[in-house]
Design goal:
Number of domains: 2
CATH superfamily of the largest domain: Response regulator
Strand content: 25-35%
Strand order of the largest sheet: 2-1-3-6-7
Number of strands: 17
Distance between the termini: 39 Å
Number of helices: 8
Structural class: alpha/beta
CATH class of the largest domain: Alpha Beta
Largest sheet: 5 strands, parallel
Order of helices and strands: EHEHEEEHEHEHHEEEEEHEEEEEH
CATH topology of the largest domain: Rossmann fold
Helix content: 25-40%
């Protein structure tokens, strides 16, 4: 079985490839692609594999954009951290997915489902992409843009423009407001990442930051970036070299 992986974080892609090989040793990882542009260039010149594993949000756009240029004729399994509500878009349109962080068990189930549904999933993938992204966009438009926080015996609403960042400390997630207050959250950073939308960027495992509070990104040895905020903050926010390019594109385009 020939597989192409589309993932802009090299460590995640390599981990996925390694897990797939352990599950099924005869799998051949034909290529690892890191962007929409690279995928379009690759599929313009090379035959398509038996199966594609793809992240959704890449540094230069959504992986759905690939199908707007290239007619994808093989099944795709998406690696996503979308919440359960958003995943209805995938269920409705017959596209398979696995949730990040993925496990060997989830990969094995996805491969088995691919083998069982191969003919059903193939052939109309581009149309399924269009239907799926339309559903996801409708979800985003219907979003209130408000995060609810339970504080003592009250529920406090915070609109996204009033939130500076979310951060993880001692395995507890916190919301930090523009005014300097912090509140403990029940949601994980992964859940908040998709509630917050495109104005927030996941800098690393600990920080999800609103672009409106970023004043600059400075070089930080070796080949990393340090994020400076518009207000004093007690922790350094460091972006890995793997995410450096994706962050710079996000800052430029948004």
């Amino acid at each position: 079985m020939k597989i192409v992986i589309i993932e802009d974080e090299l460590l995640v892609a390599e981990d996925l490839a390694s897990n797939l090989k352990q599950i099924k040793p005869d799998i051949e990882i034909v290529s690892i692609l890191s962007s929409v542009k690279e995928a379009i260039d690759y599929f313009s010149k090379n035959s398509q594999p038996d199966l594609i594993f793809s992240d959704i949000q890449l540094g230069d756009g959504l992986s759905f954009d690939i199908a707007k240029v290239i007619s994808i004729e093989v099944p795709v399994i998406f690696c996503t951290a979308f919440d359960e509500y958003a995943l209805e878009a995938f269920r409705i349109n017959g596209i398979e997915y696995i949730l990040k962080p993925f496990s060997a068990e989830s990969l094995e189930k996805a491969l088995l489902k691919f083998q069982n549904m191969q003919k059903v999933m193939a052939g109309s993938i581009a149309l399924k992409y269009e239907a799926t992204i339309a559903t996801l966009e409708a979800k985003n438009k219907n979003s209130s843009g408000t995060i609810m926080v339970k504080y003592r015996d009250r529920l406090l609403p915070f609109t996204l423009d009033k939130i500076a960042l979310f951060f993880l400390e001692n395995e507890i997630t916190y919301l930090h407001t523009n005014s300097g207050s912090s509140f403990a959250m029940t949601e994980s950073l992964e859940e908040l990442e998709h509630k917050a939308g495109l104005d927030f960027f996941r800098m690393n495992r600990q920080f999800l930051v609103n672009r409106n509070v970023i004043t600059e990104a400075t070089d930080y040895f070796p080949r990393k970036l340090k994020i400076n905020l518009s207000f004093p903050f007690k922790k350094d926010i460091i972006v890995s070299r793997e995410k450096r390019g994706k962050l710079l594109i996000w800052l430029t385009e948004n």
